[in-house]
Amino acid sequence: MKKQELVNAAIQVIQAEGIQKLSLAKIAEVVGITKPAIFHYFKNKQDLMRAVTEFTVVEYEQTIAAEYDKLPENDDLRHVHAFLYGNLRQLNDSELVKIHAASMEVLVSDDEAKKVWQNVYEREFAKLVPEIGDIQADLLSVALDGMWYGAMCGVWDASRAASIVEYLERIIKKE
């Protein structure tokens, strides 16, 4: 048994039944262990939910970094493009969108999880600002946040994402 198996089970339960129905007993059932065995890995349910948030952040940041590495070093907007393409890649992955939705539900009740995502935003913003300035970085972040929100609520048509990203690139480049 590994911590990641419990995190995956928590994500599975949240995706299937929502965070309101998440319990350590259900997670234990999915993994095939007793509820007390979970406490070997996590202090409590909140601790497990922070691990779900951390998992989501790692996935997010790895995707952005992978996109960054694909781009040519002479790209004047390398961070911007990595941010756009990484988010687009994730928005087109319905399972990953569900995991993000589960992670976002944790934010409602956990200030520590909120701080984790605030740090992610601050790091991304700090990379974008030197390339495009703070106003355009805000615009880009808000536009992508809206796309994420729509995807998590099931009202976003991912097929439009590429066109919107292209439009955002034109705005950023001031074409």
UniProtKB/TrEMBL annotation:
The keyword DNA-binding applies. InterPro entries: DNA-bd_HTH_TetR-type_CS, Homeodomain-like_sf, HTH-type_TetR-like_transc_reg, HTH_TetR. GO terms for molecular function: DNA-binding transcription factor activity; transcription cis-regulatory region binding. Residues 1-60 form the HTH tetR-type domain. Keywords: DNA-binding, Transcription, Transcription regulation. Coiled coil: none annotated. It holds the Pfam family TetR_N. Residues 23-42 bind DNA. This is TetR/AcrR family transcriptional regulator.
